[in-house]
Amino acid sequence: MPVPELEKLAKATITNLKKPKEPIPVLFNPEKYTLERSNQFAEIGIPGLSSPLLQFIRGNIKTLTMELFFDTYEVGKDVRTEYVDKIIALMEIDSDLHAPPVCLFSWGNLRFTGVIERATRNFTMFLADGRPVRCTMNVTFKEFTTVEFELKRIPRFSPDRTKLLVLRQGDRLDLLSAREYDDPAQWREIAAKNGIDNPRLLTPGLEITIPPIR
Q: Which residues contact 55 (CB under 8 A, 6 or more apart)?
């Protein structure tokens, strides 16, 4: 039984979003790519605890890294002018933006919007006159986003009114802060509002005030 021919994978492109009708084709699709994302945390020391608590600080920028290969030996043209220099030009400062342009790397269902942070060129084949016809590029994109987009993407909340609660046996201010504010480091707000000098000495049955986050 004949095996159906697999659909050819579309060519990857890199597009300056200011010039969406002028995509730069990637001659050979990358064999692989790496997406990286990380978060930053801080260690918060709480008096009386044997270990610090972790507090989320912020998310770090996502990165996309890949190796691109270009070869113009068969057509006898300079690989720089045909492909490489067009990608390097995306790292130049745009006179309107005062920064390098935002690009879109598109390949199949991967669509990564960012700026080119780093590009390393390695030329390995040359014509008789010295013009390079083969190049391997290691390219790193950093995700581009805006404050407005991030605020819409990530729902945030904070108490907008004062709350009253009664302390129970085993309650700690850092745990109350984590529950009410989603941040254990805000325990000082509760302590200051209620005149608590020693957060380790809490009296069960005492009514305290949970203030709004400023």
A: 41, 42, 43, 44, 183, 184, 185
- Give the mean model confidence (pLDDT) for residues 43-54: 77
Which residue shows structure tokens 């325990």? 187
Give the integer Cα–Cα distance in Å for 76 and 68: 19
Does an H or E element contain 18, and which?
none
Q: For residues 26 and 9, give the distance between their C-alpha atoms in angstroms, rounded to a whole number.
A: 12
Give the sheet arrangement for strand 13-16, strand by strand.
24-25, 13-16, 103-107, 110-126, 132-143, 63-71, 33-36
pLDDT digits (tens, 9 = 90+) for 136-154: 999 999 999 866 666 566 5
Q: Are 192 and 186 in contact (CB under 8 A)?
A: no
Radius of gyration of the chain (CA): 28
Please give the Cα distance from 132 to 128 (Å, whole number): 10
Inter-CA distances, 202 with 95, 119, 141, 144, Å: 61, 57, 51, 47
pTM of the model: 0.65
